[in-house]
Design a protein that fits this description.
By secondary structure, the chain is mostly helical. It is built from 6 helices and 6 strands.
Amino acid sequence: MKKVNISFTLSLPEKHDIENAMLRVADFVEGFYTSVPTKVEEVKTEVCKKTAAAKENVKAKTAQTAKQTSEAVKCKTDCAKVKAKALGAATCEAGKILGGAIKNAVSESAKIISESIANKTEEIVEEVVEEIVEEASEKSEDESGDSDDSDDHLRSCRSCPLQKGLQQIQKDIKGIKERDPAATGVFEVLTLYSGLHAVLAYRAAHFLHEKKFHFTARAISQFTKFLTGIEIHPGATIGNGLFIDHGSGVVIGETTIIGDNCTIYQ
């Protein structure tokens, strides 16, 4: 093997080189410390600018969001008002419809009840009149039951004033119901027909006239004229079933002769 000799030569820097290096380091350090406050101020200014810009951005976004929120709330409020108005109108209309339905139902019920009462009253009145006529007929038959002659029996029945009067009233009411389409029943005819009232008063006055009570008969005639507007002389001859329709102003004199089932229109 061969031996190799390696030699190193170490050269130390000169003194002035070391001083120069130290001066450069000192300049760097001094420059660094001098530039730091400037950099800090620059950074601080930049941070302030960015912070102000961020604040303005946040403020603008906040204002925009508030505006959008206000518009949304206003829109929803307007929609709620429209819905409330529509609901109020619907409620009012429903109330009107319900009130009308209730009113119609009550009116219809009252009408049905009134008609039922009127019909029942008419039935009762008809039954009472029929019973009175039957009782008068039976009484006349009992009073004449001892007679052997059938013709005398019939004459005594015809001569009974009560029976005759009731039969005439029954025929007068029957004639009015048959000839007047507006007549709904016996009760209405008895209470509301002035023509029937005048005829009934004539029947009583005529009976008194035949019994020579002329003044009383005429007094009844004049009082009936005041009430009904119809003047019928007690001495007139009137058959059964007379119907005076709209009779205000009708005058029937003493010499008048009217048959059965006649109608007088005014």
